[in-house]
Design goal:
single chain, alpha+beta, three-stranded antiparallel sheet, 5 helices, 31% helix
Length: 159
């Protein structure tokens, strides 16, 4: 939506006492205290900026993701797709980002040109295009014979 039209809509909605939000990309929508109706929508539909609950475990002296539970999904549904692929991935930042980039083949509806410069990209998009172009092979699957230990802890990540 052009900035001028957006400002007109915001002004008119404000005059009428109607809440409005214009997240760019859509997966950046977060609840705000001054917009209780939109916050309620996000809470009830579980759609907006992705929120995952991650359970960690130790496998062969490495901390890995045991499972990822989606608490809030991106509107396009990619959060569910990526969460399923996170089991067994190392928690080291570089390896985690590489894994997300390699598994992120879900179609994204966002437009890079409309995202404000001060807003960070969603982690699912980090290095995605560069790795896809480079043709790096997919991560190796974890060995099914590896022994699993009890989960270390559960963390909630706001990505």
């Amino acid at each position: 939506m052009p900035l001028g039209v957006r400002k007109q809509v915001q002004t008119r909605c404000s005059e009428l006492g109607i809440e409005c939000a214009f997240p760019k990309p859509f997966c950046s929508l977060e609840p705000e205290k001054d917009k209780p109706t939109i916050a309620r929508f996000i809470e009830e539909t579980k759609v907006g900026r992705p929120l995952l609950e991650i359970t960690l475990a130790t496998v062969d002296k490495r901390e890995v993701i045991e499972c990822a539970v989606v608490r809030r999904s991106a509107p396009c549904g990619s959060t569910w797709y990526i969460a399923r692929k996170l089991a067994g991935v190392s928690t080291k930042k570089e390896e985690l980002h590489d894994s997300i980039a390699k598994t992120h083949s879900y179609p994204c509806t966002r437009n890079n040109e409309q995202r404000p410069r001060n807003q960070r990209a969603h982690p699912a998009h980090w290095r995605f295009h560069n790795q896809r172009r480079s043709g790096k092979s997919d991560r190796k699957r974890k060995n099914p014979n590896q022994k699993r230990k009890e989960p270390l802890e559960t963390k909630t990540l706001n990505v």
